[in-house]
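Most newcomers find our protein records easier to grasp once they have seen one. Each record describes a single protein and holds just a pair of labelled lines. A learned vocabulary of local backbone shapes supplies the integers on the structure line. Nothing more is needed to start thinking about how sequence determines fold. The record below serves as our worked example for the rest of this section.
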Amino acid sequence: MPRPISASISISALRHNLATVRRHLDQAARTAGGVPASVWAVIKANAYGHGIERAVTGFSAAQGLAMLDLDEAVRCREAGWGGPILLLEGFFRPADLDVVDRYHLTSTVHTSEQLDMLASARLSRRIDVMVKMNSGMNRLGFAPQHYAQAHARVVQLQERGVVGSVGRMTHFACADGPLGVADQLEIFRGASADVADGPVSVCNSAATLRYPEISVGEAGTVHWVRPGICLYGASPFDDVPAAAYGLQPAMTLRAELIAVQRVAAGQAVGYGATFRPDRPMRVGVVACGYADGYPRLAGTGTPVTVAGAPSRLVGRVSMDMLMVDLDPVPHAGVGAPVVLWGEGGPSVDEVARAARTIGYELLCAVAPRVPITAVA
């Protein structure tokens, strides 16, 4: 028998979350009297651990897909995706342009080195480009004072027949927090005000949900949003749960109890003896540990659901096992189902908070040894 742990990916939840974001954008457009934004569904990092091919199916209603790995882009084409694919980091070496050309990919351009590679490329078709501005995050992009010049170089390549459409983009650092997007948006708009019209993309998950009005376009202008984590049913915010936006968890991590221990008051549970109950209690041993991708820093009190009842972790997470309090479920024994996160259990964000990290990390970290299946 296989070890009793598995993860399931709900295709219907992926579809639901995309439709929820779509309604959010459409409402913003109706309110503003403009054109709704198009959606690049972000499926980088193996679709946040959910699987590229599953994401292609779940996000079939998106206008485009976005990622940063060329191999994942090729897998999307091989899975039947015929729409736009945006490479969020662009290409890295001249040979990559052969793949960009062959599979008709859209590329972010954020360095002068990439412009040099484009200028010397031999391509069979024009490549659509999004020219990225560093509006304050200081990660990728041309500085505001150099942006118009970089954009002009791309337009020259367009005139030479190397580049197709030319768009503008940036990335917000604080859309999920109190600093918001106003300062970066002002810089972006100011530094790109005099460049030619074209597609525009500024919103990640947090900005898409919190500031959808900034992606409402005017007639003739295509705005693209780039939602990621929210499409998988997790929240980009510390203070607002995903459920508040009507989002559903797409990944559920399940296991079972493989042993039950009766622990006397004061006895230690787990490595380091970090937990000692103040009364006799039943402790369940779950077939899940940090080698499965569960966070080792999740300590006593981390939420978990056992046999349908809310409970908590006790003690330290081991490589292959963790322990849970069975007092809330006196009937639970070996074989009882356990939901670590997802449908029927705590949200991945609640578990991440207890482990002092973010849901993104947990979804991406599920180990290869955990069987993953898709459900309708």
